[in-house]
Hints:
Distance between the termini: 121 Å
Largest sheet: 4 strands, antiparallel
Number of domains: 1
Order of helices and strands: HEEEEEEE
Strand content: 25-35%
Low-confidence stretches: none
Strand order of the largest sheet: 1-2-3-4
Helix content: 25-40%
Shape: rod-shaped
Amino acid sequence: MKEIKNNGFTLIELIVALGVFMVVMTITLSAFLNIIDIQKKTEAFRKVNDNLNFTMEAMMREIREGTKYCPSGCANGSFSFTNKDLNTIKYELNTGGYIERTKGTNTLRMTSDGVEITNLSFFVRGNVEGDKQQPLVTISINGKSGIKEKLKSTLNLQATVSQRKLDSGT
């Protein structure tokens, strides 16, 4: 009698192999999706970081060369001064969640659509003529970017800038 060779796999072996394959693929897919989410969160953080840094630098440069900070008082989220060309400049947080710069009747949006500004505040010290204190402005900006809640990135920036023109104390 001739022996019959079984060169195939049994049903149990196939089910076990398929189960191991599915576990490995699930772990791999999960890791891949996690990497995609991390990349999206990193992109949202880079966007908010670049945008807020640009806005902060532009405001600081203009405020440093300006005078007469908040002559009528600073409102919450609003700051006005006279720039080096003797124009009145006003920075404020718009209700749409962005920072705008107003010069006369011209208004310019300073932050992009993908970034929502949640807080803008200015703290001014030494802005009274003759108080013998160098005028200082502390700017605080809080912003966030991202579509999904778990992928949102927030950034809080604060900087202090002093007026370039010395307060003579007269």
